[in-house]
Amino acid sequence: MRAAFYISIAITSTLALTACPPLDPKKVPQCTGHEVYPDPCAATPPFGSPESQPTLCQSACASLRKSNCEEGFPSPQGGSCLQTCEQSSKASAWPLKCWAEAETSEKIKACGSIRCRVLGPTERL
Predict the structure, then answer these.
(1) d(CA 120, CA 117)
(2) Please, how many CA atoms are within 13 Å of residue 78, restricted to the half-sphere of its CB?
(3) Does the pLDDT at position 112 exceed 70?
């Protein structure tokens, strides 16, 4: 009985001595801005801050989908509106803000640079 008690004390002491020490703030690595994803140094932007707001491409694609424009939905080849927007808007100037603020397919068409063929309920992917 005593042997079991001494063994448990020895094991507990060993575990306590090998446990992780508290973090020393002076030894925490500083963030350099060159970390890879997921970045443990990145802070989550506060809700409502400009950094937490959707991008113009996200807003434009949401508006296109809301108006049932064909371009707002994935293409038959599998490309999403967001992928196409982010890749193509770097090469050409698209009226993304106008599309994002438009509330109807007619207003989206009036912005220009888009056909906005309205899809029926059975055509949506």
Answers:
(1) 10
(2) 0
(3) yes
